[in-house]
Amino acid sequence: MDTDFCRKEIMPMEGRNKLEIKKLSKVFINNDSFEVAIENVSLDVKENEFLVLLGPGACGKSVLLNIVSGLLKPTSGEVYIDEKLSQGVNSQIGFVFQNLGVMPWLSVRDNVAFPDKLHKVPKKKRYERAQKYIDLVGLNGFEKHYPRQLSGGMKQRVGIARAYASIPEILLMDEPFGQLDAQTRYSMQDEILKIWNQNKKTVIFVTNNIEEAVYLGDRIILFSARPMTVKGVYDLNDLKRPRDYTDSRFLDIRKEISNHTDLVIK
Amino acid sequence: MNAMMKNSRVYKILLNILPVISILLFASLWQLASKNGGIIPTPLDVYRRAGRLLVKPVNNISLTGHIWASMKRVLLGLLAGCVVGIPFGLLIGWNQKCCDYLKPLFELVRPIPALAWIPLMTLWFGIGETSKTALIFTGTVMPVVINTYTGVRLIPQINIDVASVFGATEFQTIKEVVIPCSLSAIMAGVKTAMGTAWIIVLAAEMISANSGLGFMIIRGSDVADLPLVIFAMIIIGVIGAVLSWILTFAERKLCPWKVEIN
Amino acid sequence: MGNPNKIENEVAALREENKKRKIRTIVRGIISILTFLIFWQLLCTFGIVNDKVLASPIQVINAIFTKIVDPRPDGNILIVNILASFKLAMIGFFLALIAGLPLGLLMGWYRPVDKLLRPIFEMIRPLPPIAWIPIVIVLLGIGTVAKSFIIFFTTFVPIVINSYTGIRETNQVYINYAKTCGYSNWKIFCTVGIPSAMPLAFAGMVIALGNGWGTLIAAEMLASSSGLGYMILMGRNYGRIDTIIAGMLVIGLIGLGLTTTLRKVENRVLKWRLK
Q: Whole-prediction pTM value?
């Protein structure tokens, strides 16, 4: 009998690829024209690494993330998870949406417990588990509140708690801090690292902010503007955590990436 | 008027007197018209008639009896309209295939005004309660379906994506996302349907009934008892306003997450 | 690298799929309507439904064509009925437009006007137009004036409400900008307020026309000797179902035509409006 609705943790193997994207392309059709959003992108994601996808705004990073999660179908190319071909929505993948995606008609607790409700977990157990994650993101006390009573940062934390509550093996985060003011953004960056340290998972984090990328990532994959291709891969594993925005090595990397990008990014 | 004058206390007081003035003006015009016309009853006449009504009922049914007769018909028809209309609207809003097949049929019937069904319904169901309920059903089912359909179509894709990403089946998506999200649109449809139902019930009662507020009006006008007619109209107006208020209240209760726009 | 060609293939394939989907939608609709009509016709042909209760599609069409020249059973040929109804609807609607549109706009913009006229409007508003019919008949008889008055009432309310709401929702940013340009209140009203109110005002007109058309039909059933409402009422009285259904179809078609025309006018006038 399951005493806890818990997926078996797969023992992390060094160097194994959790996710592989092979030759992915996505084309959107308009009435008279078409647009190549993603062109022939291939990349690997290692187990339990914090991978950042960096690129100018509206270049196609969100599209890529949507394809990985199964919400969109690629025009060509494949996605492999744990070396198996992934088709359609995969519930091993958690998603934190750019536009918050928090459901306004549910309280914080019901939002976080939503994935469990879909898996038919009984109410008492749902709420227990949800509470754990609500505490994790620092929102205890707000369980019964509705999203409209929360600030942007708090709503985003609900999204994160919810994604975590679904015990994903891979966590996708689509510019989750884009709508927040600078102060909240900095504290949320520390939050997400803290949570990630307590619960190591594979994270794919999308942003258009270079500093955020260098602050958060184990590796950064730099993308071009549309049609989106991989411009470069940066390995930051030698940069010790917790990272410092004013550290000279930090600034060097930042400059290097900045010079290499298509557009000047904040 | 410059801004300073606008904000002065005097201006504000003057502003609030205006409604009173207009009501008084209206009342005195009414009084004047009734004195000169000879047909139009004075406000006093209406008041007195109302008093007599409470003692001597129309057609042996008390005032509350008539009100309830009309209300019963409205509620029954409205319920039928929702029971059929809401699921239908959800179906064609959500499932593209069903929409392709069923919506054209719906659009065929839609332009026909509800009241134009009266001859057909009375031919089919006679002049009893059934035809009235059927008529009200026809009138309510349209706005309910349209609003429910629109409500489903306007759900932000992101809410549906959230459900997909966390592994919801289609049934779960409908139950957990589609219905709560379109609830306020459905309520708007019900409100509109209520207004239409009210109009239909009055028309049906005026054409053939022996109870209800519409009946009261026709009775009154048949015997040139205008105070009765006017009194009935006032009651109708009051009830209409009350019903609308009740529905707004219900909507607020059902959708506590909605932000109030002023 | 072969890549551009691959992309083009994919694009072509996607376009094909889109086109197929659109055609599928139309075909399904046609199948649906045809099935319905055939089913209806068969019900009548095989006498499954009493022919006193339902007329077949063929009979209905026949009735329409016959009515074009045959004045039975109500005493008017079709076109006379149509014109009678149409005339009344137009008179009532345009009167309501001329009175209601400026009223709603002014009430929405100028506080004093709002305060003065609101109470009277709020008294009229909850009353269903149908309820006015008996009293109007007593006061004004059953002529053109009375019926136009009823239509006026029906269409007046939505027009006022929607133009009022429309102008109240004018974007404050535009108003402020006009103020910095030194415009007087009246000028802002004309150049900013009225145009912003137009989309909602037009929506109100469409609703008003739809409601008015329906009320007209009812009014004709209660007090008229011509018009489409009268025609279907007579159809009922003489047991002519084909006339009833034919009349309902014509009523629906004209109502549809009216609202569609109004929408086309709206699109022309409001070309600047973003979808």
A: 0.83
